[in-house]
């Protein structure tokens, strides 16, 4: 049961252009969403998050958009830089829902490749 | 910058053997987690730990698994009798607050311990 889905295993973007990574979820109890970035041989590192009461959160080059009605969120990176090449995981949590409330539910990840 | 450290970075073991993976969480963090990632698959929640007891666990975390905080700094994951399907990267994470308290909480992950069961 994939509650968090990242349907693109990989994405290739030219340096300087916008990277858009997508994530869909099925569990309507999710109320907080996070993006983690992972380099090879390292653990996931937190990038940006958004609460379900918002539809946009911006931090420098990174912006996360949330469309609750569509159960869809996206991460925009602009402009894309070579150091952005990594695997990006979408994750979700359900506050106070019980049954795994302490655990993040991750998507399978999207491998972003920034081409020079 | 504070970090979560994990040892060993890679362990190879025979099926049926016991394995202990070790983690040193960030010192002022109160909540500890283990996640795993089977090659090519998503990162999966195993267990969370707070105040010296398990807070939440997933279906994956069966009787073969146990966690312990034997002293003030280490947090361990033990697999009693490893199976081939336990081969994965195991990530330890810690946070200041539990996710159940604040969805805004951010987990800091270690670099992972790769377990290979032969």
**How many alpha or pi helices of chain B?**
0
Number of strands of chain A: 11
How would you describe the shape of chain A? globular
| CATH level 4 superfamily of chain A | Immunoglobulins
Q: What features would you describe in this structure?
A:
The complex is a heterodimer of chains A (116) and B (118). Chain A is mainly beta. Chain A has strands at 4-5, 10-14, 19-25, 32-38, 45-51, 56-59, 62-67, 72-77, 86-93, 105-106, 110-115. Chain A has a single domain (4-115), classed as Immunoglobulins (Immunoglobulin-like, Sandwich), CATH 2.60.40.10. The termini of chain A are far apart. Helix content of chain B is 0%, strand content 48%. Chain B is built from no helices and 11 strands. In chain B, strands 2, 4, 5, 6, 9, 10 and 11 form a 7-stranded mixed sheet that branches. In chain B, strand 5 (43-50) and strand 6 form a beta hairpin. The chains are: A mainly beta (116), B mainly beta (118). Chains A and B meet through strand 4, strand 5, strand 9 and strand 10 of A and strand 4, strand 5 and strand 10 of B.
Topology, element by element:
The complex is a heterodimer of chains A (116) and B (118).
Chain A: E1 4-5, E2 10-14, E3 19-25, E4 32-38, E5 45-51, E6 56-59, E7 62-67, E8 72-77, E9 86-93, E10 105-106, E11 110-115
Parallel strand pairs in A: 2-11
Antiparallel strand pairs in A: 1-3, 3-8, 4-5, 4-9, 6-7, 7-8, 9-10, 9-11
Chain B: E1 5-7, E2 10-13, E3 19-24, E4 31-37, E5 43-50, E6 53-57, E7 65-68, E8 75-79, E9 88-95, E10 108-109, E11 113-117
Parallel strand pairs in B: 2-11
Antiparallel strand pairs in B: 1-3, 3-8, 4-5, 4-9, 5-6, 7-8, 9-10, 9-11
